[in-house]
Specification:
heterodimer; A: alpha+beta; six-stranded antiparallel β-barrel; 5 helices; 6 strands; B: about 120 residues; alpha+beta; three-stranded antiparallel beta sheet; about 25% strand
């Protein structure tokens, strides 16, 4: 049975989406991994994955090999078509184990994500954090957009500033 | 600047910068010109979810450790050697893209010379 998926997020981009998350019509999550690009089109191995396990992957608590070698539902799928945000997969029937050449190497974790992601600043104003950190807001925006990369020292300044803003918010009493 | 591939309007983005330094890329042995083709040139019929500007760039990394890590992570890259390329402003424009801070999109100029590539790890 074919399953239609919608692409949610690319976790690893290298020339094309190497690893991405997609969801089915009822919200089930799938992880799609490029396994071979020697042909006219890349081939992908697909597994269903829970939100909890996906988060463990992102936080580098489990390696990518474990996710694909031992999928939670014990089943693998292959991608049969991809068109922009829409993907069609079908089960790999009669497969009890995936050949190791289609799997990540054991002990390889997702790359460290950029720490200053825009999501970090959904609840706090960039200008307020920059002021607290004694930093030019334009520079902070460049860090967030990825145009410039902060040093560890600068990251710590931003982090401390966010924490101080948070502490002041916690102390706020309206009633 | 004369681009190696036709680029859409406003591409490279205004915040892209001229490269200056060492970058790394996963390729093939023997070196093939297609190792430095963009996704769009390589898979013209394939429509992935990405901007037309990004799909006309080439992925490069600014630290070798990331190239080694990606090779471990990605089955499609397991057997690819790591190329070292020295890029300067004549070679095009680069911009850090994606969630990996070491990943850059590179819009190649026609000036880039494939013969300068070194294979550092097979």
């Amino acid at each position: 049975m074919k399953i239609n998926l919608t692409v949610l997020e690319t976790l690893i981009w290298y020339d094309y989406p190497q690893l991405f998350v997609a969801k089915d019509p009822i919200g089930g999550l799938y992880l799609c991994l490029a396994t071979d690009d020697s042909g006219e089109t890349p081939e992908y191995l697909v597994i269903a994955i829970s939100a909890e396990r996906l988060q463990a992957l992102r936080l580098r608590k489990i390696d990518l090999f474990s996710a694909f070698a031992e999928p939670e539902l014990g089943a693998w799928y292959k991608l049969v078509s991809i068109e922009e945000s829409f993907v069609v997969i079908e089960p790999m029937l009669g497969v009890s184990m995936v050949p190791t050449n289609l799997l990540p190497k054991p002990g390889a974790y997702l790359p460290q994500q950029a720490i200053l992601l825009p999501e970090t600043f959904e609840a706090v104003k960039i200008g307020a954090v920059a002021k607290e950190a004694g930093m030019n807001p334009t520079l902070l925006r460049q860090y967030i957009s990825g145009t410039k990369r902060p040093s560890t020292e600068q990251l710590r300044r931003v982090q401390d500033a966010i924490h101080r803003v948070g502490e002041r918010l916690i102390q706020l009493r309206l009633v | 600047m004369k681009w190696f591939e036709e680029l859409p309007p406003d591409c490279p983005p205004s915040d892209a910068m001229p490269p200056n330094g060492t970058f790394y890329r996963l390729g093939s042995i023997p070196l093939d010109a297609s190792d430095f083709w963009s996704h769009r040139k390589r898979f013209p019929e394939k429509a992935f979810k990405a901007s037309e500007c990004i799909v006309r760039s080439v992925s490069i990394l600014d630290i070798v450790e990331d190239a080694i890590e990606l090779r471990q992570l990605l089955p499609a890259m397991h057997s690819k050697p790591i190329y070292q390329v020295e890029l300067s402003s004549k070679d095009g424009m680069v911009l850090q893209t994606g969630s990996n801070i070491h990943h850059f999109s590179w819009w190649r100029s026609t000036e880039f010379d494939l013969s300068t590539i070194q294979i550092i790890e097979k």
